[in-house]
Amino acid sequence: MKDKVRRGGRNPSKADVTSLVSGKEAVGNKQHEDSSFPVRIQGAGVEPFELQVRGFWLVQDAVMTLLLRDDVFPRSNLSLALAGTPLDPLAELQSLKGLKPGAVLRLVEEPYTAHSARLHLARVLELLRASGPQDALREGRSPSILETLTQTPDSNVPNGKGLKRSLSNTKTETSKPDGAPPEYLLPGSSERPLMALLPHSSQPESPSYLRDLCLSCWNPAPGHRKLQGDFLYITVVTMEGRRCEITSFPKGFFLNRSTEEVFDPRPAQSSPVCHNFTDLLCHISPAFKQTLTTLKNRSQLPPVELMPTPYHTLSWLGPPCASRSHKNNFSRLGVDEQPPTQAPDWNEELQAARDLPQGSVEERLQRDRALLQVNGAFVRAVMRGAETVVDGFAEPVNGNPDDPAFLWGGLFMSHGAASALFGGDRGRRTAQRLELKGVQAYCDIEGLQGLHTLPTAIVDYRGLRLSAQGLAPGLEASEQDQETTPASRGLLYGVTAGPQESPHRRRLLERLAHAAKCLSLQRHVVVGPNDHKVPLFTSVDAQGLLGADGRFYILDVFRTFPADANFCPEMETESQTVPEEEESKSSGGEEKEKEGCLKEGWPENYHSASGLPRSFSHRLCRLRPELVQAFIQHKHCQFTQCVRETLDANGGFEECATACDSRATEAVRVACKEVGSISDIIFEMRFNPSVFSPEVSFPPGESKSLKLQERLLREAAAFIVTHQIPDFLEFCRQSNEAPMDGVSLKQALHQRGINLRYLGHVITTISQSQHKECLRHIMRLVIAEIFTRSTRRVFNSFLQGVDVPSLSAAVSHFLCCLLVPHFTPAPASDETKKKSRRRGRGAGASESTPWSMLAGAELWNLVCQDAAETYHISDILGSGPNHLVEHYGLQKLSLLREFCLKTGVQLRLRDYSLDNQNKAPIGPDDILNLFPVVKHVHMPTVDASKAYRTAQNFLQKGLLDQAHEHLKEATYLFGRVCDDLHIEACYCHSLLAKVSFKQGKAAEARSVQLKAVVISERVLGFDHPNTIHQYALLGVYAFAGGETALAQKCLLRARLLMLTVHGEDHPYTATLDSCLGLVLSGDQRGKFLMNALRLNTSFFGPAHLLTALNQQLLAQWMCSKGDYRSAMSHEKEALAAFTSMFGEDHPQSRSSKEFLCTITKEAVKVERSLRQAGAEGAQQTVENLSPTRAAMVEQMALLTGIKSITHRDGLQEYRKKHKELKAAVAKELGFPVSGELVASQTANGEAKSADQDAGSRKDAEDGGSPAAENSNEGQQEETLSLVNGHVVQPAQANGHGEKTDVGAGDSDRADSEGKAEDGESEAGAAGREAGNSTSNGVNSNTVNGEMKSQSVEVNGATNGAGDIPVSPSGLKSKGTWADVVSKPNGGRDTAVRVGGKVTANGRVQE
């Protein structure tokens, strides 16, 4: 019911909530926080109440805050008066004389205008359309289900009060769980009920206020009534059946005497004049008055559940009864959307938001919020525009039937022309997608001012892809301007711009040069249309324009990123240069050398091993920006290694660092040449986006640079196959949080720069791996992704031959052919024809349409053919859907879900029998809707994201207090910008909950996690993998707070979603089952624990941490049952695993050994008692070995990744040797040696790391880089040990640790070590990479001016990226000289002096 909030507007009351931020410039001045005071509000027919205001508020801010209150809503057109004097809306409250705490402000009803009267009616409509639980499904939006889980059975008010109570109540729940889990959630069950996914909400449907509300037939008001003030006439039909005609005029609303047949505008007898429309309705209808009173007295859901999301999140399931759920939304009142006098100028709105000031945090927050609101409105307009255009309600503005263009609502929408150069229709769709990615890349450049891109989005609807853009200013030239030069029309840059010189062009080139440096693009020269040389900072297609608004725009950026040489085979045999002049001068030997250079860059036997390079279905295969950054980091590691080896060969690093000769300079030159740096005195990687473009010609002078670029692109392409794909699979093999569905698989691959066209190579790599069985879940996902993507392409073509009345029948027929083996269309019987006639379709329509003749075998052949052409696989998909089920364990339900999410199909919520071959499982009535699927630019949340990353840095160093502080700041900033409805806000809340839990604040963790779950459900989807993770974490925090029933519900909900999305055979199912084994009781506990052990053993093997923890849990359960023999067996397996991982002296191994001894002693006691005293004596001597609740909570934290046990001895030894070497170098060079370094030479290698590196601590204070802090020297550790599930947790350095009681059989475990993880367990958390080892070159977030050391070998295994900050510069061991002469990603303007020369990077050259 909140007007501005639900419309997406800025909520001034939210904007001025007391700041949670501490710091210099967090969110305003401290004096503002202390300037709040209460005032009393009365008048305008509302009950008097107190309002907390702030002195720096404007009067209009206070009015807006009042209008959002439930007790004032839906009143509008109000002003404030103090002591009878009206207040100026633009005056600050603190400047008003007589306004002091406790002062009385009176609401004054202002006269309406025609416009404000319509706005008031729009607010009334928001009241009448109070959202119900089915509204989200009706509109195709993902709902929030959490409220149904948090409802208590004994709640007397089933209206959402349960969730509000759950968000605030932190008392321990004493009631036991409601009962056993349903059969379909037990391990081994194959039943997958869809009805359980979306349970009925306890929130009742919105009540019926009126039967009808619309504009009267007597509108518009005649002239003589206009002169008397009549605005419009409204017809109301009350619930009692009374029909009333109401007049709107300046003073408000009154009942007139008109009927359906007679127009009589005079006021009815005894009709009051009401300023508020609902007051008049209460006077007319007692039923309306009663319903309104009930609505205002009911408890409200939290705002995060009511506010609209910035973008549409598709729900693939709709209401069970779509027709019955449709309701009257009073749209005939005609006040929803005023007919605009002109279409909105989306480009001007977006650029005006981008041009907002950014001088302070407050200004940046307002700018980020404005950008998000404009972009959200633009995306919603694109969705409506796509439906209008594709459904045929808009006429094209051009006469080209092959590429029709449309103007609708300020949008320019087109299909795009299919070019044979780019690969036909596939190339056209790819160009539209790459254009969006290019726009996103330029938008993400931080600090780039003055270079603009148009608002852009692409939308897929009914098998068609449309590109939508805002109208660019100054591009529509008049006819007399067509003959003028390009410069006079604003074209300043591009191949077709021609040679020109102007101040505008120079300013544009400066911005383009800055952007090229940030995107790692090389300045290059190409041959223009008139054989003149054209210098470029972008791809050859890009154009730079000076718009009529005075802004510089860059367009056509779809080839911004470099080409993928793996799919450019035709370019391997031809040259792009103009070689005639050089060929006449070159010798035969040089020609042979040239042939060799063409192949330079490919690894040995690369083609025979991978089958690459090869052709692709289109010619727009480009590298992803993530891959470019990962490859640069990889090359930087090679550069560092080369410099180190050269220096070692010339006398050693220390000698070269102090000697004043050219050895160091020469080492850098050799390394630059070796790795392919574009400079010979500094490490800098740039890529030419025009290389491997067949239509581009380069001048002869570019031949050397071109060969280098071809070599680099070949190396980058091979880097995907040789490094990134194996690293991704290694991460999936080691992690229990591997991708669960197509969305998470796509995100995980893209984070490593792996395009989805490499899915076939992922399959090949898994098939050739010795860990094939452990990667079967990834194989299953890749097969499903190939299948659904190929099916979507076939579906797009299929829909082109379907007319609108047959869409539901055609889609259902397609799905039956897809999922039912050997499905054949049945001939239309007489009964079918009768049904078709009754439904309004022509008789026998299914017989006369080509789509109805599609058979299952034909469809499967089309899908297999597309998969073979696109992914270079054969016979993988088999002969039908049953092959996927039997050979790969795929679920038809999971395939159906993936297909619906990718195509926008919404199905009716019911249980589908997809294995029934005698009857079509999906009918036309099951297809509820086809929604547009929009891809759009994501607007940054700069300050909030920066605070979030800073918190991650502190958390990686174990500084929980600082991390908690910055996370609270980040959550506040996210609330200011996007009302928390943002994916990164979800990750931030989840991480804040983890940090609070680690600090011992279980109640706060639970409260914050509740919000994270709701955000994930609404922003990502109710069944998104991240939502599964969030429910599991909420279960842990609820269990920690004593709410066993809620914890059980959350974990069972997560398991239900897991079974639907992927199935049971996944590592994360084992995690959920382990947690359920702790929460449940009785024999079902053992079922879940045994299933978890089976899964962990099959995926990770017996010698893995998760498997060992599982064995311990089973041992505990066996002890609770008195089965000590089985408990000993499981604990022996756990001890063997801990010993193999950590060694015999590790505290975890010692703890397991002690627990095994305790079990053995108890077993001996029981056995002896049975022999000597009989069964009764045995019962008396058995000692209870059940774990305490606190110990169970800690075990759940270990299983879910909130905390983890790690082996640190090798790293401690490395630290000791590193500090000794650093002290020796400093002493040799004459620098003062700190006491810390001297003490570290004799420090015990297993001691706690209290001597934090000064440089590392400085990085922590400055925020640092999230990727640079992994395995940091100054990382503080929280100690953790388990024996029989009991925990000893010594107080941490920050003072938030707490010690838990130790049960029987426990001993000293204070030396057991654990580390605080970064908390990024959400599926798809940005920046999560496989294997943080720098040698793999994965980390793309390189610290400015710092290099990452090579991976540190600990006990013969790679321990990860050991970051060595430069402090002081040049004194670190192992190649720190490269810190002085290299820049990993060329991202900063620095001048480096090497060998007497100074090079300024990034200088604009013409």
Biggest sheet statistics: 5 strands, mixed
Q: What is the spatial order of strands in the main beta sheet? A: 2-1-5-3-4
> Rg to the nearest angstrom?
34 Å
- Multimeric state: single chain
* Strand tally: 32
Bulk shape: globular
Quote the average pLDDT.
Answer: 79
Could you name the key traits of this structure?
about 1400 residues, alpha+beta, 5-stranded mixed β-sheet, 5-stranded antiparallel β-sheet, about 10% strand, disordered N terminus, mRNA binding, TPR-like_helical_dom_sf
What does this structure look like?
The strands form 10 sheets. The chain has a 5-stranded mixed sheet with strand order 2-1-5-3-4, covered by helices on one side. Helix 44 (1147-1172) runs antiparallel to helix 45. The two termini are 59 Å apart. By secondary structure, the chain is of the alpha+beta class. It contains 50 helices and 32 strands.
Secondary structure topology:
Elements: H1 3-6, H2 12-15, H3 30-33, E1 36-43, E2 46-54, H4 59-67, E3 78-82, E4 85-86, E5 104-109, H5 114-128, H6 135-138, H7 146-150, H8 161-168, E6 210-215, H9 223-226, E7 232-238, E8 243-249, E9 252-255, H10 277-284, H11 286-297, H12 303-306, E10 317-318, H13 322-325, H14 346-354, H15 361-390, E11 405-408, E12 411-414, H16 424-443, E13 451-452, E14 456-461, E15 464-470, E16 491-493, H17 503-518, E17 524-527, E18 533-536, E19 543-546, E20 552-555, H18 580-583, H19 588-598, H20 606-610, H21 625-649, H22 653-658, H23 663-675, H24 703-734, H25 742-751, H26 759-767, H27 776-799, H28 807-819, H29 830-838, H30 845-848, H31 856-871, H32 881-888, H33 892-903, E21 905-908, E22 927-930, E23 933-936, H34 942-956, H35 960-978, H36 983-998, H37 1002-1019, H38 1025-1040, H39 1044-1061, H40 1067-1079, H41 1083-1100, H42 1105-1121, H43 1124-1142, H44 1147-1172, H45 1174-1181, H46 1189-1199, E24 1203-1205, H47 1209-1228, H48 1235-1240, H49 1254-1262, E25 1277-1279, E26 1281-1283, E27 1286-1288, E28 1313-1316, E29 1353-1354, E30 1357-1358, H50 1377-1381, ...
Parallel strand pairs: 1-5, 10-21, 13-20
Antiparallel strand pairs: 1-2, 3-4, 3-5, 6-7, 7-8, 8-9, 11-12, 12-15, 14-15, 14-23, 16-19, 17-18, 19-20, 21-22, 24-28, 25-28, 26-27, 29-30, 31-32
Helix pairs in contact: 10-11, 14-15, 15-35, 21-23, 24-26, 26-27, 27-31, 27-33, 28-31, 34-35, 35-36, 36-37, 37-38, 38-39, 38-46, 39-40, 40-41, 40-46, 41-42, 42-43, 43-44, 44-45
